[in-house]
Amino acid sequence: MDAANFNPATEQLAPAAGTKRGYMQIANAIRRPSMLLALATAALLLGPAVAADLNPAAITITPPDKIKWIAGDNGADTATMAGDPDKPGMYVILIRWHAHHMSRPHFHQFDRYITVISGTWWVGTGTKYDPDSTVPVKPGSFVRHTAKQVHYDGAKNEDTVIEIVGQGPQTATPAQTK
Residue 91 and residue 72: Cα distance in Å, rounded? Predict the structure, then answer.
């Protein structure tokens, strides 16, 4: 089949004469669906000019500037997003490690599930604190801290935000050897 003479609108070959008119018909046949696709895409992306009202009983949205961070004395700020880490039950917290701050070796009584939100999070294992042996964990990565296993973590050259989902009450038992 000669693709240059194919008319997609009729799914037939155009006259083989190759006249200017034949080429214009082919160009128009290709242009029409492309234009319709572009218009449909624009309509979907732009959508209604006003956002729909959401039922606050169904969805709670907290914009980044409304998250309530509590400054810690260990170089990390904490924001509790759901639950209470000091009580039994599930909790969700955000930790913002400031650059050049790390925890010391410790462990938790329950598994904890961590997602790196921004920055590079650095993690190490073992009872000897050695920041040079930590490995980088990039944004979007998922980490599981296994219960009763010794680890330490934090930020090196940039602030880092992680989300932790765990089972309360949250504990951190020191485990560093010198």
Answer: 18
DSSP label of 131: G
Q: Architecture of domain 64-174 in CATH?
A: Sandwich (2.60)
| Tokens 């880490």 sit on residue | 85
Query: Could you read off the pLDDT of 103-122 as tens digits, one per residue?
Result: 999 999 999 999 999 999 99
Predicted TM-score (pTM) of this structure:
0.70
The tens digit of pLDDT for each residue in 12-46 reads 555 555 555 555 555 555 555 555 555 555 555 55
Q: Where are the domains of the chain?
A: 3-46, 64-174
From residue 125, give the alpha-carbon distance in Å to each of 67, 69, 105, 136, 163: 31, 27, 7, 13, 19
